[in-house]
Amino acid sequence: MKTCSVDGCERKHHCWGLCNTHRLRLRKYGDPLIMKNRAAGEGTPHIDGYWMFEVNKRSVLRHVLIAEKALGRRLPKGVQVHHVDQDRSNDANTNLVICQDASYHRLLHRRQAAYDASGHASWRKCHICKKHDDPVNLKFYLPSGLVRHVECWRERYRQQKGASR
User: Is residue 43 within 8 Å of residue 51, measured between CB atoms?
Assistant: First the structure.
């Protein structure tokens, strides 16, 4: 019988050379040796760069705890916390925005990307040429949500039509 590859662990090997306990710790915290029940106030690094804390037997991300403290209560279901500077380690109150849902959170990221690329937060990106432009110059296609220049679409259509002949 294969055993866990962690020193001192005699549990049965599950996958990745680890027992189920160490495999789950690796997935959740990025390290199979991190213990979940750490001293009070100590967080553990999460695999995606955030910090996780144990509060009243629930695991909570540090930036969520900070947002809840600022709000004065637990965040409602579906609410997300956005990092303005997109640095996951910067959990300052001034760097966090409470978003009512995932679509608003995506909107903030899209507007930031547009501002970084073009200097205009309201501009959108053509899905064909990948250039940001004023929405007046773009065509929006629903329900797909695709945004494109009419000329980019015509050129692509011409190329596809020519290639099929």
Answer: yes
